[in-house]
Design goal:
The protein has 325 residues and is α/β, with parallel strands linked by helices. Helix content is 53%, strand content 11%. It contains 15 helices and eight strands. Helix 1 links the parallel strand 1 and strand 2. It is globular. It starts with a strand and ends with a helix.
Amino acid sequence: MKIGIIGTGAYGLALSLMFYENKCPIKMWTKFKEEKEELEKARQNKKALPNVIIPKEITFTNNLKELANFSDLIVIAVPAGFVDTVCSELRFYIEERHHICIASKGIEQDTCLFVTDVLKKYIHSKQVAVISGPSFAIDIASHFPIGLTLATKSSKTEEILKKTLQNKTLKLRTTDDIIGTEICGSIKNVIAIAAGILNGMGASESTQAMFITESLHDIKSLIKALGGNGKTILSFAGFGDLLLTSTSTKSRNFRLGNMLGSKEDPKKIAEYKTHTTIEGLYTLKSIYQLLGNKKINLPIIDLIYSIVFQNQPCETLLTFLIEKE
């Protein structure tokens, strides 16, 4: 089974090592010629995943048609904002034999579409899966035990991913709740910003645990409101990813929140936003708009939005937790 991975960032490279463990031929795509040349020369992405060496058997290309022609399974592992551009070109090369796995998380700006919905605009396939769960790229690449949710409605796609991706350090638990899995994978980045705010304010661990618990209830309500299965909140993609992202300083979303909560110099915060991909910021805008469009009431999102974008005092988060119904 040949694997094509779209995206040579930290997560895409980490996943490539998992497929490599199962002796799958792998080709990876990057838009940038300079990045391809550096990967071929240095066998690592020094910025995204330093000190992780990519085996020489894994090849690279700037040509999506070449990647599609090579692949049986195509993994999309680019930031959510780039999925539309990728899929709009990829559609010309997709065949019935192809299976697609989405590793990207988030909601598209303006349209408020989840990644699978962006894919569906261009590619009409039932052989699609989503993977999501508590998994920093460096932890995957370091071969620590990792658990991911695999969401798909295709038994064949499920079988292929279990065979090619699951190994002695990576475990997959399956579900057919694609929308619930995507909601969890997207909104956890937003919740992590608020968790970071609490940490930056010096809130106790008890208060932070209270916040995560309240967030679980709200995410479950959102999943059900958008047609998913509320039980998905208890999966790797749900509680697992939320716990990791909302408690770890490795999380860029958590670090941003921490800077806001500790009232760091606004210039430093602005610089961090400029030079760092913070998915939670983009997702916060999208989920805020989506809730408005769907007329879904989720006060915790309204509050996080007002703190991050409208200069609402961070301290209101503490009051909110007590007064929240």
